[in-house]
Amino acid sequence: MLVWARTDGKNRGCAQPNLTASWVKSVNSMGWKFIPIYVGAQPPCQNSPNPERLTTSAAGSLGASDATDAVAKASALGMKADSPIFLDMEPYDITDKACNDAVLTYVRAFTKTLRAKTYRSGFYGFTSSSAQAIATATDRTDLPGNLWYALWDKQYTTTTDWPWGATQYTDHSYGHQYMVNSKETHGGYTITVDQDAWDRPVAIIG
């Protein structure tokens, strides 16, 4: 059983006043596992109203400062060192070289800073754009060690629809968001959830 935890980031889509350390501890004790997500700066070429955008000149420094913030927020929720933090990068035009280079600079700085603070690096993105940019980058230096790909094909798998070759992200480093906005009813309450197949780390709660 998995729970997404959008730890913070200026581009987080909604407030989460109930996301507290005590709530995380309580839900974890019920057997639920947490996936920390940080919605950081978004690409300069992206068509969206997100308030925090990358620039080529500041991509590296912003990636490092956002990672520092992500670790602080995760730690405050009781998510200990060696937990993964997944950087959420929404779709953008990866054929725009200047834009894509800025994104990779930002991601590398974010990843390097996470690792220096002994948290695991993860990345959430789309197989048609942001995840593809990470998976196919020629220079693998300081790229995330875990890749969570959005491919809404309704297939519960982390392997058979993986599009980039069997030698990448091995050793339980995959996650697959295969369906979104699914209605489920539990205890008389109907909620809207996303569905994921998971074969990668989850947060360590302490």
SSE sequence, one letter per element: EHEHEHEHEEE
What share of residues is helical?
Answer: 25-40%
The CATH class is identified as Alpha Beta
Continuous helix count? 4
Q: Which word captures the global form?
A: globular
Radius of gyration: 16 Å
The name CATH uses for the topology is TIM Barrel
Poorly predicted ranges: none
Query: SS-based structural class?
Result: alpha/beta
Q: Could you tell me the number of beta strands?
A: 7
How would you portray this structure in words?
This protein has one domain: TIM Barrel (Alpha-Beta Barrel), CATH 3.20.20.80. The chain is α/β, with parallel strands linked by helices. It contains 4 helices and 7 strands. It is about 25% helix and about 25% strand. Helix 2 (about 60-75) crosses helix 3. It is globular and about 50 Å long. It has helices at about 20-30, 60-75, 95-115, 130-135; strands at about 1-10, 35-40, 85-90, 120-125, 145-150, 175-185, 190-200. The mean pLDDT is about 90. The protein has a 7-stranded mixed β-sheet with strand order 1-2-3-4-5-6-7. Pfam families: Rv2525c_GlyHyd-like (PF08924). It comes from Streptomyces sannanensis. This is Rv2525c-like glycoside hydrolase-like domain-containing protein.
